[in-house]
Amino acid sequence: MNVKQAANVLDLIEFFARHQRPAALAEIARHFDWPRSSTFNLLGTLAGRGYLYEPTARGGYYPSPLWSTLLQQIERAEPIPDRLRALLRALVERTGETAVLAATSGTSALFIDAIESPHAIRYTARPGKLVPLHVTATGRALLSLLSPTDRASVLRRATFERYTPTTLMSVAAVEKEIQRSLQRGFFEGAAEYTPELGGVAMPLQVPHRQFAVLVAGPMSRVKARTKELASIMAAEIERHVVGRLAAETKTERVAAGR
């Protein structure tokens, strides 16, 4: 699904994020090859709602602080728990690879947070990235958290496209891999979506929310370390998530007993 007007707004915000300076109507229209009238209407609408302003007279448009204010309000309402950010930091420190926190978005896994490896050659991941649920270790870890009925519904809507020679190409193959992964305790990615990229993913549940955590890097480094990475991840999840949740629950029970 791609609603043109919504896509244009998002493209415009990404444009300002890259260029980090005001831009005039003519420059924006030329950059996107948009009709001047449509560009005028879009900029006028956003400016009229307070989302764009002109730092200097006739000096071009720039996003206003309103964007930041709204995003902060949204984040405060349902923030990513600090323990999950600490988990990602610990995983990068112990594995040397990129660590990612992801959640379900339709038939995709959406990267919510990520900390990249210090290696020059590494998996580059950014919040907002989308990858297919059925094709990736991260996605299959998220699918494992769904009921069989809900999982079947998602997989019926999936598009089975061959990205690499190892891409799983049927609902049955995906379901078989999910069950196999649950039995061994981790989900493995072996260049099924991105060539030469490997990783280990695990499902992660916190109160009212479901995530998957991924450690990924070049197959040349990751493939031989799969079990080691899974062991590190399990230990850090126990320390940062399971253990802390148990301690918080115990504290709440003690407080309630008083």
Written description of the protein model:
There is one protein chain. This protein has two domains: 4-71, Winged helix-like DNA-binding domain superfamily/Winged helix DNA-binding domain (Arc Repressor Mutant, subunit A); 80-254, Beta-Lactamase (2-Layer Sandwich). The chain contains ten helices and eight strands. The protein has helices at residues 4-19, 25-32, 36-48, 66-77, 82-95, 137-143, 148-156, 171-184, 219-222, 226-257; strands at residues 52-53, 62-63, 98-105, 108-115, 130-132, 187-190, 197-206, 209-218. It is of the alpha+beta class and 258 residues long. Helix 2 packs across helix 3 and helix 5 runs antiparallel to helix 10. The strands form two sheets. Strands 5-4-3-8-7-6 form a six-stranded antiparallel sheet, with helices on both faces. A hairpin with a 2-residue loop joins strand 7 and strand 8 (209-218).
Using the coordinates above, name the CATH class of the largest domain: Alpha Beta
User: What letter string, H or E per element, gives the SSE order?
Assistant: HHHEEHHEEEHHHEEEHH
Shape: elongated
Major sheet strand order: 5-4-3-8-7-6
Number of domains: 2
Number of strands: 8
Using only CA atoms, what is the Rg? 22 Å
Structural class: alpha+beta
Largest β-sheet summary: 6 strands, antiparallel
* Portion in helices: 40-55%
The assigned CATH architecture of the largest domain is 2-Layer Sandwich
Q: Can you count the helices?
A: 10
The end-to-end distance, rounded to whole angstroms, is: 53 Å
CATH superfamily label of the largest domain: GAF domain
Overall pLDDT confidence? 89
Give the uncertain stretches in residue-range form. Answer: 251-255
CATH topology of the largest domain: Beta-Lactamase
Strand content of the residues, in percent? 15-25%
